Amino acid sequence: MKAVITVTGKDSMGIIAGVAGVCAELGANIVDISQSVLQEYFAMIMLADIDKLNVDFSQFVDTLEAFGAQKGLTIHTMHEDIFNTMHHI
Amino acid sequence: MIETRDILETINMIRQENLDIRTVTMGISLLDCVSDDVDVLCDRIYDKITTKAEKLVETGNKIEKKYGIPIVNKRVSVTPVSLVGGRADRDGYIKIAHTLQRAAEQTGINFIGGFSALVHKGMTPGERELIEAIPEALASTQMVCSSVNVATTKAGINMDAIALMGKAIKRAAYLTKDNQSIGCAKLVVFANVPEDNPFMAGAFHGVGEPDTVINVGVSGPGVVSSAIARAGDCDLSELADVIKKTAFKITRVGQLVASEASAALNVPFGIVDLSLAPTPAVGDSVAHILEGMGLESTGAHGTTACLAMLNDAVKKGGVMASSHVGGLSGAFIPVSEDAGMIAAVERGALSIEKLEAMTAVCSVGLDMIAVPGDTDEAVICGVIADEISIGVVNNKTTAVRIIPAYGKQVGDSVDFGGLLGTAPIMALREYSPAKFIGRGGRIPAPIHSLRN
């Protein structure tokens, strides 16, 4: 199972490292990243394998959100099933 | 493989276009709570609801977090209380209503529905007591919702019940006069009521249902509205396709949440209700969809046709997305709960007659309509009888949720706050149907009810 993590906000140094650090700490393995910076605006979609998560999914969502808030970023984490259900028959 | 475009579309629907799951409603049967002692009955009802729905809110919150989609309401519907009340008198029924309120508070849900009676063909003494208890029950509770089914296509229309409901609505308005007559916002009069409706105030747990069940209502007028705006100047066939595709996506999310809740709570999945349910929030209006389809204002000639097309396309798109569809499934057109409807009434474009016509082609009826507080009881009964006839003759559900707001006149408005919104007081015709209503008895079932 995978989680889709979206990160948006003002660009600064170490965003990817920071998010990746939180993921590693909680047992989420990053499998794909798509990232761009438009002017000073940072946007990233990250796909992470959550089979070996060492916390509850809700806690994973909250930890990433709290990390984002600290850095002035908006981080949303959603289970992949919502996208699969909505866009694939 | 998940594509970036799909991810962005979903996130945009949730964050910008107000896509949400309007309600996860757990139906709970109270049939095994019966007792000839009202206190024992109340204890059993309280225990059953608080046990079965103990984890409903917690589970809802978890799913919300997992998928990043808001689940606005967690609710409970129960067996129509008149069926378990036995020989309870008016005070007994009020006691049951208080029990439902306590159980709702304990479980942390938003609303509990089922203070209800099904009297489409006639009334037992108990059902009469329940109907007479409704105004006090609603005035002395906050989360209890009540509904009464007064007609079906098979049975015809019980005009005696409509007369009683006219009285109950006026009294509920009076008893909650210090709170904008809010009692009436929790009371619905139905024809052909569905037994698995997850939406309030009309939800109850039908007798053909299992012991417990999970029903889910989706929302998403904002998503449909934006899709229509993006479609630009296409013709109506194309527009219907755009609506269908959007409804499909919305409903798939409803189905996902329903399956997940059902598995987590170990309660069978019942249905997904496909209704487009508006809220007073900007960008969450059914009226604005109709205007996006090309009307200068909702209420213009052409409104009924627009709504008929919208309603049909929503169903066609949604039906393939869910394994079981039920409840009301259509577009809701409540006045107070829809910013576009409120605006249409305020600019004089939308009258009660046009609303009545619109209800012939969509899922509910005259919903959340505030009228002058001094409206004669017989006139209210006339409004109900008209609306109910539309349901009976067209073999569909219709309902009336009307608020004769105490002390208010045309030009005033009532503000309920939250999802119930703000209702401008609408004018009714004052000519009296009192003699017609006073005749009592039943309007016979229409000829096409004889289908066997």
What would you note in describing this structure?
Chain A contains three helices and four strands. By secondary structure, chain A is an alpha+beta fold. Chain A has a single domain (2-87), classed as Alpha-Beta Plaits (2-Layer Sandwich). Chain A has a four-stranded antiparallel β-sheet with strand order 2-3-1-4, sandwiched between helices. In chain A, a hairpin with a 2-residue loop joins strand 2 and strand 3 (41-49). The longest helix of chain A is centred in the C-terminal third of the chain and has 15 residues, at 57-71. Chain A is globular, with a radius of gyration of 13 Å. The two termini of chain A are 18 Å apart. The relative contact order of chain A is 0.30. With 452 residues, chain B is of the alpha/beta class. Chain B has a domain at 216-440: Anaerobic Ribonucleotide-triphosphate Reductase Large Chain (Alpha-Beta Barrel), CATH 3.20.70.20. In chain B, 44% of the residues lie in helices and 18% in strands. Chain B is built from 15 helices and 14 strands. Chain B has helices at residues 4-15, 38-52, 56-67, 81-84, 90-107, 125-139, 159-175, 221-231, 236-265, 286-293, 303-319, 339-346, 352-359, 377-393, 434-438; strands at residues 21-28, 71-78, 111-118, 144-152, 156-158, 187-191, 212-218, 269-273, 325-326, 366-372, 398-405, 413-417, 421-424, 442-443. In chain B, the strands form two sheets. In chain B, strands 1, 2, 3, 4, 5, 6, 7, 8, 9, 10, 11 and 14 form a twelve-stranded mixed β-sheet that branches. In chain B, helix 11 runs parallel beside helix 13 (352-359). The longest helix of chain B has 30 residues, at 236-265. Chain B is globular. Chain B starts with a helix and ends in a 9-residue tail after the last strand. The model of chain B has no long low-confidence stretch (mean pLDDT 95). Chain A binds chain B through residues 4, 6, 34, 45, 47, 57-58, 61-62, 76-87, and chain B through 2-4, 6-7, 9-11, 62, 65-69, 249, 252-253, 255-256.
